[in-house]
Protein: Magnesium transporter
Amino acid sequence: MSASTRVFVARLTGLAVFDPLGDQVGRVRDVVVMFSHTRPEPRVIGLVVEVPGRRRVFLPMTRVTSIDAGAVITTGLVNMRRFEQRTNETLVAAELFDRTVHVRGPEAEAADISTAIVEDLAIEQRARRDWFAVKVFVRQASGGSSASRAMSRLTRRRSGKTMLVDIRDVTGLHEQSAAQSAERLLETYDDLKVADLAEVIHDLNPKRRAEVAAALDDEKLADVLEELPEDDQVEIIAGLGTERAADVLEAMEPDDAADLLADLPPDQAEQLLQLMEPDEAAPLRRLLTYDENTAGGMMTTEPVVLAPEATIAEALAMVRREELAPALASVVYVSRPPLEVPTGRYLGLVHIQRLLREPPHASVGTIIDKDVEPLEASAPLGVVARTLATYNLVSLPVVDGDGRLIGAVTVDDVLDHILPEDWREERHELEVTP
Structure:
């Protein structure tokens, strides 16, 4: 590596990381810096690297031997212990991007830039092989019209003057601003699956977590909330305005939304239910009447339900919907009208594999499987789990005392209740061989 190597963090994130033998170890997700009152330039102490299994680990800069346009090369083995941020450490992409700062100096005065937004940070290796943050790429802070801000979000092109300034001429970089955008952070993690984005959000401090939640649309935030621990769910919902919180709950799966409402104070839960559309709130109220460790407490109220006269082609079109979870898409439940839960009399189910073997014009009523006994809403967790395991199923129907379908329990719902309460926090703590 040359005596002076400068790299911009936005370009560094996403680069592949290779060991000395050329095998890929992972991918850079962030850069860790430490601020000091005695040193104007923050020291870069390491990289956050995502390794197979979506585990985020810490790679010290002392183990980085080369950084170029296409890759990061390391020396030695990478410690596969999950990265945990310490109080004196700052994540550049997660915490500094989009921060409001003040810029001084002749160049800033000439460009008429005093208050700016951090767009990027340049890090540089010095002769003694230590890395420091040396430059800040900023954009002039400007509110702009709502139309221009909307266009910026669509095109990902931001308006306003930009300049590259020495980090010594920037103040406020290490101070949390009253309000900070999360746009750049979300762009950095744009390729993550929802469960992995939820883990990133979980690792943020409460203020930054709330800012990220505010930046997500209702559908995406609903998906993320379903993957977060209960404490994080309650914290985020409590930080949203009541109107938006109600909208997000409507976008969540009914069983997950009901679980979240059950964790809120009763008065707050009732207020949110009152703000929801009546047809969205009704199934949640029903779910809240069941014990959480019963079939009724675990079930979703949105299974795929068809009348016996429906064709195989219609059934396949229903389960083909992208938004449908795989466990729910594996089974079509057949009942008499009405087809919204609680339905008419439950008749049986049809597995997707059977649908694929039948002619499209045939009706689902001719291939109903009646051997799978439906569960009662009061069936305990143990009975539900044993039934799924005994018959190698991923979904089971739940009926009321009149034989009407009121929901379905899927294997992922059961796993959520069988695993330890903190499994979401500990899911990446298993040992991984590098």
Residues 5-86 form a domain with the SH3 type barrels. fold (CATH 2.30.30.240).
